[in-house]
Amino acid sequence: MNTILSEATNSNTVVAVDAIKPLKELSGSQAVLEACIAEGVDTIFGYPGGAIMPIYDALYDYHDQLKHILVRHEQGGIHAGQGYARSSGKVGVVFATSGPGATNLVTGLADAMIDSTPLVCITGQVFAHLLGTDAFQETDVINITTPVTKWNYQITDAVEIPHIMAKAFYIAGSGRPGPVLIDISKNAQIQKFNYEGYTKCTHIRSYRPKPFVRKSYVEAAAKMINEAKKPFVIFGQGVILGRAEKEFKAFIEKAGLPAAWTILGLSALPTDHPLNVGMLGMHGNYGPNVLTNECDVLIAVGMRFDDRVTGRLDKYAKQAKVIHLDIDPAEINKNVKADIPVWGDCKETLPMLTQLIEAKNHSEWLAKFNQYTAEEHEAVIQAELHPTAGELSMGEVIHLLNELTNGDAIIVTDVGQHQMVACRYARFNSTKSNITSGGLGTMGFALPAAIGAKFGAQHRTVVAVIGDGGFQMTLQELGTIMQTGIQVKILILNNRFLGMVRQWQELFNDKRYSFVDIQSPDYVQLAKAYGIAAATVNDRSCLNEALQTMLLHDGSYLLEVMVGKENNVFPMVPQGCSVSEIRLK
Amino acid sequence: MKKEFTITVYTENQIGLLNRIAIIFSRRKINVDSLNVSPSEVESIHRFTIVINETEEVVRKLCLQIERQVEVLKAYFNTNEEIIWQEMALYKVPTDAVAEKLKVERLLREYGARAVVIRKDYTIFETTGHREETDRLVAFLEPYGLIEFVRTARIAIIKASSGFHEKIREFEAIEPAEELIENEFLDKGQAVFTM
Questions:
Q1: What is the pLDDT of residue B175?
Q2: Are strands B45-54 and B3-12 parallel, antiparallel or unpaired?
Q3: Which residues 6+ apart lie within 8 Å of A397 measured at CB?
Q4: What's the CA gap between A309 and A95, in Å, rounded?
Q5: Strand ranges (E), chain B
Q6: pLDDT at residue A10 above 60?
Q7: What is the per-residue pLDDT for B177?
Q8: Which of A23, A246, A338, A444 has its CA 20 to 30 A from that of B167?
Q9: CATH code at B92?
Q10: Is A220 on the interface with B (CB under 8 A)?
Q11: Does B71 reside within a domain?
């Protein structure tokens, strides 16, 4: 993982970067907006309210420099900020008011925390003299958000605003990125103070964004890779956050290392790359899961051994030596013991490794992955992607979508069966193309995140793939699409069930379907109410044309595809099982 | 195997940091036996002393999580053999008991107890020492009408530590110096530095 902010964060000297000419007097609110401009922010997602009114009043004069997107709910605002950050590689900025405005951010903060997404959230707060008095819309935001922020801070004096904002952007974007929340009392927003310009933060003495790279460990890792007969690389979002896609590709290509991804690592390496052997984890591919327990050296790059990836830990890669590259020292040995920890920014450590490893190809070992792929194809993939009769499958929809977008679209997924199917079967040519709620599994993430993703990468097609359950959690953001005119393609895979929970109830609870039967409104009518073109399709012969219409439409478009009611996602590593006990059916 | 560990954390002085550190323990349902926050040998740097009963593996992971916090400079953990520690205790006993029972007076002297307040109705003693010692004195005084007892958190000094004066300079530097590639808690044998 890496510094997301400008090169200035890597500089060896503390210098004022982009220092703004001193102005005489500014209000706290103006100082907040000046900070955003100095940090290169172009889009803010937010929702006004009483305690943040002075900032919104100041925004009125800054509307030509800062684009503000009025969302329909603060949760939508923060997920949009996340989508923006993930598609652009920049820090997402979110404004919300005190009390309920701030508490509505909590789910998004938790999501951004676990998925290491850089955000700066500004919340309004009641006047400082009212703190602790149970004032109207007062809530203890700092304490509520402490476990779900990388850093948070309450400002009650406007003088603090410039340097705290600088710290906020620096902390959010550097090292292992994460969400930062700054709570500003209303008096500080109003307060005029002598503004001495804005200086970007490049160093905080108690904070080391990047650990010191120890050459001896890099050398030991290279030696181990050179001696390996069956090396296996598993990679996560660290490659994307570290902007090390090229370095990563050079690394695996030099030694012919088969590489599999976590769902947040997806799109860091093109799907069609010959060394890309597929997806890890509970609904990952057959080969990567089984062969995790057969490789002799497991090389983990920018990933954190989540339980959905490892399955049962005491039966996970016990035969293998483990090399773990990560920027966060707390990830080393947290879940899986590393024989060689390579702390550091993988943008730096990967080239060091590449230089030391021998050029090789492990073709026999790679062929083994391909055998498993063939077996999985036969047992699962063929029927999922190319069914000839019966209800539509989620897989065939994604497969057709791939063909029409040529793997160039950004695909934003929600959480559940459609998410697993989309991640399994979507093809990606370029990085930052897969945006999903990985660690927290937040239903309702996709629609607002897709809006944000489009604002972060306006030249790209953004398709939100969403289940009928998740869509109903944040569908109010259709209003944001309507008002901003942003082009988002919404693909609802409707199986009339909360599919993933239903699948578990079928497999593990004797088909006792407990509250998973969910009804949907008429999505076409709903979209039309928001002025969004829409269609529904349940016939295989019309699917291709319907998808084409959606993609070619000049504007947002909602396409509902009726898919098989009780289809299951396979393969599957049942909870509590080892990765090599993965089931094909 | 679980045993007593003392965690020493050097931090910036910042509102809310106590909560940030406390929730690292409570999130994992780990009880904090003792917690002290005080200034350190370096101006503006605060020092947390935390005592918990856990396995070494858990304590190591906790320290890494503590160090992840932006305002934490360093976290060390040590076994009781590696530190010098003290706790202070206050005991309020009826003055009659002290004045009339020779045994009480002798024992208080033996424990190094110092009278802080002497009144007609009660006397307050203070001792400094290890928990077992104060516990023993409490058990002894109870039959003589111990009125009140209170004990402070543990404060500790790491025997092998050379203090934080030198280290703070490295933290203030943009890049840590090569010779400071060490980390007492993470991997003593291999002397690793994580910052």
A1: 67
A2: antiparallel
A3: A491, A493, A543, A547, A561, A563
A4: 34
A5: 3-12, 34-39, 45-54, 72-79, 83-94, 114-118, 122-129, 148-151, 155-158
A6: no
A7: 53
A8: A338
A9: 3.30.70.1150
A10: no
A11: yes
**Cα(A252)–Cα(A34) distance, integer angstroms:** 44
Q: How far is CA B185 from CA A520, B33, B193, in A?
A: 55, 20, 9
DSSP symbols for A222-233? HHHHHH-SSEEE
Q: Looking at beta carbons, which residues of chain B come within 8 Å of A329?
A: 64, 67-68, 186, 194
Q: What is the dihedral of CA A375, A379, A382, A384, to 10 degrees?
A: -140
Domain that holds residue B173: 3-83+155-180
Give the DSSP per-residue string, A469-523. HHHTTSGGGHHHHHHH----EEEEEE-SS-HHHHHHHHHHSTT---S-------H
Compute chain A's Rg from CA coordinates.
24
What CATH number does the domain containing A516 carry? 3.40.50.970
User: In chain A, which residues have their Cβ closer than 8 Å to the Cβ of B184?
Assistant: none
- Chain A residues in contact with B68 (beta carbon < 8 A): 328-330
Q: Are residues A357 and A466 in the same domain?
A: no
Scanning every residue of chain A, which has its alpha carbon at the shortest distance from the alpha carbon of B172?
A205
Q: Which residue of B has its CA nearest to A170?
A: B70
DSSP state of A543: H
Taking residues A359-375, report their average pLDDT: 97
- pLDDT attached to residue B184: 35
Q: What is the ipTM of this complex?
A: 0.91
CA distance A463 to chain B (A): 36
User: Structure tokens of A24?
Assistant: 């005489």
Q: Which two tokens stand for residue B29?
A: 């349902």
Check whether residue B9 and residue B63 sit in a common domain: yes
Residue B123 has a pLDDT of 93
Structure tokens at B177: 């110096």
pLDDT of B163 reads 84
pTM: 0.94
3-state secondary structure of A251: helix
Tokens of A458: 């306006």
